[in-house]
Amino acid sequence: MGIRSVLKGAVIAGIMVSVGAGSALAQACEETEFSSKTGQLYLDAEQAAMTNNDYVTAANKMNQLKSMGLNCYEEGAVLKLSAYINIQKGDRKAAVRDLLSALDKGYIADKDRAQTYYNIAQIYLQEEDINKSLEYMNKWRQAGGKPDRTQKWQLAVLYQRVDNFKEAIKWAELVKAEDGSKYDQQLYDLLIFLYNQADDKAKLASILEEVVAHNPTERKYWDAIAGNYFASNEERRAFEVQKAMYLAGMLKTEDEIMRIVNFYNRFNVPYQGAKILEKEMNAGRISRNLDHLELLANLYQVAREHEKAIPVIQAAAEAGGGGAMYERLGRSYADLQQWENAENALQKALSMGGVKDPGTAWVQIGQSRYERDDRSGAREAFRKAGNRAGRSWLGFMDSEEATASALDCFQYQSALLNVTNEAKICKRLSVLGEDQMTDNCKTVNERLDAAEKAFNEAPSCRGQRT
């Protein structure tokens, strides 16, 4: 049964309360009965309407009665019966005119006025005249009407229809309080709309959480929660909601899943973001293009997962990343101290072009050669770099070699000095006689000659000979 049928039934029931010749009228009317002529016509109309459901005949008889000179009692009864008949005929405007006339002329007893206002409100609601319906709902309340759950709901909807969200929220919350633990999806949907329109993000978040608890697989509510957090600039909470949606399998499109990956990146959880991205690329839900490969490599590198980053960078380079991507591959190999692989990748990067800073690439090639003890090759690369870093490396290598040479010469000098001192001691001992000479003194001259020769012939001691 539709809402219009329900409303119509409620209105008819309300009007029936006060329909009939015996109904009490306002005290101002002193008449208490029909005349014989009008009474029979009224009874014929009543029978046609209520017994025979012949509303056309009933309406015709009502028109006859209205054209006659009626006393107050008769007119009051006729107006109320006419309202009933017009409702049944579907002529709601005429029914309202009858009821308002009865009210204005005092033909509705005080105890029935509230119900009549309510009936008029329901008729206007059927007519989609929201403002008039709300006006008479308020008159009904002012006349003593006590809203039950249904009427509170009507007031919430009516105020929502006229964009008075504050009042609509008040009545909708009263309905929710009356429902207690009972869950009514229609009510919750209305509250979600109202809190959103009123920009009450705290209440919206709370009601959405209740709805999700009852509808854990209904995505639109999850989206609403995330949207509410976004609107409140609470991106961390929005991320947690989106993460829960992903884990529940609600996010399926590339854009949706990439949003999760980017969230992980933004909130400094690169390894988790990388795992999701790689998993979804392997599953085919995210395209394996250069941009995504580059992002995956970034995430692994930021997470210091260089071994995982290398095959991704290799794939990105092969997917059209050019020299820049091979340069990056070379740096990654260098991070892992895989020096030969590093040089190969960097050489390929330079040969392909697209390297923003070739000098730095040559420095890295020089370093890879240095680490493999190819000093001449390293010097060549550092000279090709032609930048400050290359010159610094060359200066370092010069200093390193000078230090090594100095240490080497120092060893020859130390050995010569030791034997020279020993020869001096032996010479003093010889004055005391042969029997005072040690065995070492017997060979000291030979050893001194050998030490002097070694010193004089050592390349590292050139320029230090006397």
Automatic annotation (TrEMBL):
It comes from the Bacteria. SUPFAM superfamilies: TPR-like. SMART domains: TPR (SM00028). InterPro entries: TPR-like_helical_dom_sf (IPR011990), TPR_rpt (IPR019734). Coiled coil: none annotated. Gene3D superfamilies: Tetratricopeptide repeat domain (1.25.40.10). Residues 1-26 form the signal peptide. Keywords: Signal. This is Lipoprotein. It comes from Hyphomonas adhaerens MHS-3.
